[in-house]
Amino acid sequence: MAEHAREISQRELRNDSGAIMRGVERGESFTITRNGTPIGRLIPLRRRTFVPREEVLAAFSTAPIVDPEAFRRDIDAIADQDPFDREW
């Protein structure tokens, strides 16, 4: 999934930051250079995407069935413990 990052100078980043940020929003990546030497990358963050219901159901179809009452009892048993009520 290597994507080509356009090289831009530190000066170009400073002078054209608005246009560069719009490019990042569109999914473009940039390699920032200083005196021709790469010093950093500017990359878009992954945005959350909608996952269709069918895909979610398929992903969880092999998960174990959880008994909600037993689960609640187990959680309560752990949460009700006093961490300071111990003999060392």
One letter per element, helices H and strands E, the order comes to EHHEEHH
- Read across the widest sheet, the strand sequence of neighbours is 1-2-3
In CATH terms, what is the fold-level topology of the domain at 6-42? Answer: YefM-like fold
How many beta-strand elements?
Answer: 3
**Total number of helical segments?**
4
Question: What is the quaternary state of this protein?
Answer: single chain
Helical proportion, percent range: 25-40%
- First and last CA, distance: 54 Å
Q: At the first level of CATH, what is the class of the domain at 6-42?
A: Alpha Beta
- Overall radius of gyration: 25 Å
The major beta sheet can be summarized as: 3 strands, mixed
Mean pLDDT over the full residue set: 87
Beta-strand content? 15-25%
Named at the architecture level, the CATH assignment of the domain at 6-42 is 3-Layer(aba) Sandwich
Described by the principal axes of the CA atoms, the overall outline is: elongated
Structural class: alpha+beta
Low-confidence stretches: none
Protein name: Antitoxin
InterPro entries: YefM-like_sf (IPR036165)
Family: Belongs to the phD/YefM antitoxin family.
